[in-house]
Automatic annotation (TrEMBL):
Organism placement in taxonomy: Bacteria, Pseudomonadati, Pseudomonadota, Alphaproteobacteria, Rhodobacterales
InterPro entries: DNA_S_DndE, HerA_central, P-loop_NTPase, T4SS_component
Domain Helicase HerA central: 191-329
Record-linked Pfam families: DndE, DUF87
Record's protein name: Helicase HerA central domain-containing protein
Matching Gene3D superfamilies: P-loop containing nucleotide triphosphate hydrolases
SUPFAM superfamilies tied to this protein: P-loop containing nucleoside triphosphate hydrolases (SSF52540)
């Protein structure tokens, strides 16, 4: 064999582009934080198959490279992998080029087989692992399979190490011309972002550039609320990859396309859990402009929600509407704004309970809520999805922390044109801002002005790790509260903004 371990260790291995994307999917499905882990699993799965591997078409687009010593390890581990691949090939004389081709082919075939078995397991990680154990002919006696903390379970993190984010497409300090980075998940910092600016100022350009950079560094999923309807295809000023493509996000537009989330799923199915969930729903419902709940109506809504959650699984908005009408009839109360608001919300299906929160929040979604969607429908969608995210995240153990103190990420949540819902003091949004950092959550709010935050609690912006403001006619007091004295937002040039992080305010050119 005309190849050495040194050559293998230094070689660049890759599979085709589509298979590489599937490799990234398996990182999320299995809670793996390194690209080489699903690659090793795929190659070993292919090696377990008797049929000879077929080399793919050389014209296929290629995926990202993994070095040999990363993919296979070093020393004995590298020797064993090489021996297995050569033995399966049945070729006594293999050079580096041939080995790279064989590895890519095994990687591709193994991923396809794993994906098939994942579907057969119903995306259930325990059943999937059991299938792999059977293929490997490992003993299963002597105890249960270990409980997963992977993505389809509860505890997956999608990043390891510090994520340094450039501030926009350029991200250059106006005075020093040096490139400026913000540590999203660094030790002691908050991972949340508030970006503000008038129409056409470039706030979405900056937000999209930052999100792309995060995704390039870690396969973290994104939940984005799009009030304009153009976020998925947003490419920035330099024709970058569209945001939806970068995150491989599914775009949904309720009620035309209902959100496939069991949004009213109970975290605890005892009476306490039911009462707590009913209270959360009542607080979300009370934020609707049309509901205007008094004390009596608040009690009726809570009672209706508790009944529906106790008796229906999965529970849907229509079940709460039906119970609410029952409660009004029992109390001989006349129908009012609360009942009419519930009827309006149930006119078209906003949600279908196809996925649990754990399943839903491991994928990327862009939820379009353009102006033609009724305001109350938009508000309830945002608040119930955020409430489900809040309950999911805060029910998990703290996200892992690396040796450098960087906190692992589980999900990004972005609200574009956030002024649409700011000021209403959505309880779920406030909780996510205050509490999700330790759980691996990161929230990005893109709005028009510092004034938009004036209706929120004083601690709301204090919990932002990064605040950026482009040109706007904000009141001087609001701008000073956000950025400190001396930040004049009316004289900024095109593409410029003030940023505040690490207790320092700087003027940068973002694009």
């Amino acid at each position: 064999m005309s190849i050495s371990l040194v050559e293998v260790a230094g070689a660049n291995f890759r599979t085709d582009y589509d298979s590489d994307k599937l490799n990234t999917d398996f990182m999320g499905r299995l809670g793996m934080r390194k690209r080489y882990l699903p690659a090793r699993l795929a190659i070993s799965r292919s090696l377990a198959m008797n049929a000879p591997v077929e080399l793919p078409d050389e014209e296929l687009d290629q995926g990202k490279v993994i070095k040999g010593d990363t993919l296979f390890g070093t020393g004995t581990a590298l020797s064993v992998w090489l021996a297995l691949i050569v033995e399966r090939a049945g070729e006594p004389d293999i050079d580096t080029k041939r080995l790279i081709a064989l590895v890519g082919a095994h990687w591709r075939r193994g991923l396809a087989k794993l994906d098939e078995e994942w579907e057969q397991a119903g995306a259930d990680i325990s059943r999937f692992v059991r299938r792999l154990v059977e293929v490997a002919e490992l003993p299963t006696a002597g105890g249960r399979l270990p409980v997963s903390t992977g993505a389809s379970g509860t505890g997956a993190t999608f990043s390891s190490g510090e994520i340094k984010v450039p501030l926009g497409e350029i991200g250059e300090d106006v005075s020093t011309k040096e490139e400026v980075f913000w540590s999203l998940n660094g030790k002691g910092g908050a991972p949340h972002t508030a970006i503000m600016g008038g129409s056409g100022s470039g706030k979405t350009v900056m937000a999209a550039a930052m999100l792309r950079s995060i995704r390039e560094q870690a396969p973290v999923p994104l939940i984005a609320f799009d009030f304009k309807g153009d976020l998925s295809g947003f490419t920035g000023t330099q024709g970058q990859m569209a945001l939806g493509e970068a995150f491989e996000a599914q775009v949904i537009e309720p009620p035309r396309m209902p959100i496939p989330l069991d949004v009213l799923a109970l975290s605890q199915k005892d009476q306490f859990g039911i009462d707590e969930a009913a209270l959360r729903f009542r607080e979300s419902f009370s934020r609707l402009k049309g509901s205007k709940l008094g004390d009596r109506q608040r009690n009726y809504v809570h009672e209706a929600a508790a009944r529906a959650l106790s008796n229906e699984e999965p529970c849907e908005l229509s079940h709460i509407r039906d119970r609410l009408l029952e409660v009004y009839e029992e109390h001989e109360a006349r129908e009012d704004g609360a009942t009419s608001s519930m009827e309006e919300l149930c006119r078209f299906p906003l949600f279908v309970p196809q996925m649990s929160p754990a399943e839903f929040f491991q994928k990327s979604w862009i939820i379009k809520l353009p102006p033609n969607v009724p305001e109350d429908s938009r508000t309830i969608v945002v608040n119930l999805v955020l409430d489900a995210l809040d309950q999911h995240l805060n029910g998990l153990a703290d996200a892992e922390t690396g040796p450098d103190g960087a906190r692992g990420l589980r999900v990004l949540c972005m609200i574009d044109e956030a002024h649409q819902i700011l000021g209403t003091k959505l309880p779920s949004l406030s909780r996510l801002i205050r509490m999700s950092r330790s759980k691996g959550g990161a929230v990005m709010l893109v709005s028009q002005s510092p004034d938009d935050f004036s209706g929120e609690d004083d601690e709301f912006l204090d919990n932002m790790g990064l605040v950026a403001a482009f040109a706007t006619n904000a009141k001087p007091g609001a701008a000073a509260r956000v950025l400190g004295k001396g930040a004049n937002l009316t004289n900024l040039q095109t593409g410029q903004c003030f940023v505040r992080f690490d207790k320092t305010t700087r003027k940068i050119r973002a694009w």
